[in-house]
Amino acid sequence: MISRRDFLRATAAASALTIGSGLGPLGRAAAQQRITQADILRFDPLGTVTILYVADTHAQLMPLHFREPSVNLGVGEVKGMPPHLTDAEFRNYFKIAAGSADAFSLTADDFVALAKNYGRMGGMDRIATLIGAVRAERGDDKVLLLDGGDSWQGSWTSLQTKAQDMVDVMSALKLDAMVGHWEFTYGAERVKQIADSAPFAFLAQNIRDNEWQEPVFEARKMFERGGATIAVIGQALPRTAVANPRWMFPNWEFGIREEDIQKQVDEARAAGASIVVLLSHNGFDVDRKLAGRVKGLDVILTAHTHDAMPGLIKVGNTVLVATGSHGKFVSRLDIEVKDKKVADIRFKLMPVFSDAIKPDPAMTALVEKVRAPFARDLAREIGKTDSLLYRRGNFNGTFDDLICNAMMAERDAEIVLSPGFRWGGTLIPGDAITWEQITNATAITYPNCYRNQMTGTQIKEVLEDVADNIFHPDPYFQGGGDMVRMGGMGYAIDISKPMGSRISAMTHLKSGKPIEASKTYTVSGWASINENTQGPPIWDVVAAHVAKVSTVKIEPNTAVKVTGT
Amino acid sequence: MILKSVEKTRRETLAMAAIAGLAAILAPRLSLADEQAVAAEIKKLYGDKKFESGKIKLDVPEIAENGLVVPVNVDIESPMTDADYVKSVHVFAEGNPLPAVVSYRFTPACGKASASTRMRLAETQNIVCIAEMSNGKLHMAKANVKVTIGGCGG
């Protein structure tokens, strides 16, 4: 696998990186409480081609807080390797000073204090400014803009407009191509309709009609930039049909289809491509494995697992880019081509500090326009929070605790299950909880909050199944996301064990008694992948609870005991 | 080819899981796949003959997207001439109540020895494929298919 030396070699070549100096340009600026747009954009240009890359924006049009995970465990060969490093380990690896702007944007500890210093990140009008500045510097004919998917889902406005808000915004950014995952939860017909009419390409080599094995989308597109031919191959989330409701796209089949990627690479080279890019929603560990098995990929633009890394990871001759999520970062890759081959690559993960970047007025106006029909709803204040509310973490997040508490209270359940989604904004203590904040963590097309009976055995089977999807030692069996969140029940997990023996010590928290295998419990949950799931939408359940408690306070969650790390 | 019947408790689990929400079509089986049953079937056909690896390309998904219709493709490397061809191919599923899934017979006139079908798999298990060549040699290949509850994808 990738040694630290490989990594350092890759980053050494990328001299424009903000890492490597302990206090890089941003670190110094941060120490003085000044980060400017010029600091963020500063880049020593290389060659004739620039790729700009965003992914997993989850339909976030406005600046927000998003806390990175403090628990993100790797298993097997990638244990202890990036992106499975957090806080001090992450900062040490990437040479980032504690308390710096980079530390704020990339790590979790001290988040509340740093959030007050550095403000919100992202916002499509700030992203538009960065993209516009790079295009102005390099020339439109040298710049390719790519989106790694999960850009149409995650907000009330995207849900209400069936992604039209994001399609309009991404079209205005002059996006060249994208790939998908959550996009498919708008249903096959809507996705095809957009893909067939949008001004950008919707690429996916690994989706086939399950009867005839015909491709559903264009697999690859060739672009001419800066005198070079760039092939972009799309790879949708291979596990979409098991991770999300298959009934929404019943005739599609996914999978990794490694051999077909190889064919695409070989065809692209034969057709004259100097640069071959995989625009991938595989997830980082899957892409790292794939990079060692598919030959001839120059760049893999990774997504899905929401990792943000201020350096390139190199596997053989392939570099991997992890650009983060929620619009917090825009990646810039300058590529020098010699003799129809990639000669050098320079990279920077540009942090989108919303207070430092002047909004692009045209994009501000467009964002306002698409939000206008929902503005009153979005701003509606339901309550406030005294606690930090965040999503990320392998086993729990405080926003998930809030959702679990809401289901326990509103659905009168003994045990509740909430999916380990990695999207949704972070609220800091003192923040208002608005309709927008609640729906940023819940806006999906299958939101029904069910209530029914499950035995202890069935609950264990669910936990084992989800755990195997995260902690299987072979990345090709990892589907992304985090552990299902539990309310009303504690358990122990040994992540090093095989499926079926990771979970133990399941305890009913209220009574302190062990969960009995054959006993039946009243269980509530949401985001069922089964058709016709009954129950109120989860956002109504959460809003009702928040309105009742008025001020949310989340107690520390010690219900999950983790070993085998 | 479609395999029937899941034991009763599985069926109940399925019904529960279907309502329970996080679950998809099939409950996971933390599997006690019946390797012996497959071995017994093979012994009935070929006694104690030895199997070689190679020649067989057994293409099954590593994770089933729909356990009710799991695609299986087999492709046996052979010139398919009168002197050297694939006589028969058998596919077994270790986790099924009746392990023999399908058998194909070929002649040189087939041109190539490849076939596709779909299996119903109730749980994670190994799929075994054996090929009998015209010279009497036997080949074997094995692949695991994971059947998952699914959901929760981030």
From TrEMBL, chain A:
It comes from the Bacteria. SUPFAM superfamilies: 5'-nucleotidase (syn. UDP-sugar hydrolase), C-terminal domain, Metallo-dependent phosphatases. One of its GO terms (cellular component) is outer membrane-bounded periplasmic space. Residues 396-526 form the 5'-Nucleotidase C-terminal domain. One of its GO terms (molecular function) is hydrolase activity. Pfam families: 5_nucleotid_C. GO terms for biological process: nucleotide catabolic process. Keywords: Hydrolase, Nucleotide-binding. Belongs to the 5'-nucleotidase family. NCBIfam families: thiosulf_SoxB (TIGR04486). This is Thiosulfohydrolase SoxB. It comes from Tardiphaga robiniae.
TrEMBL record, chain B:
Pfam families: SoxY. InterPro entries: SoxY, SoxY_sf, Sulphur_oxidation_SoxY. Residues 43-152 form the Ig-like SoxY domain. Gene3D superfamilies: SoxY domain. This is Thiosulfate oxidation carrier protein SoxY. It comes from Tardiphaga robiniae. The gene is soxY.
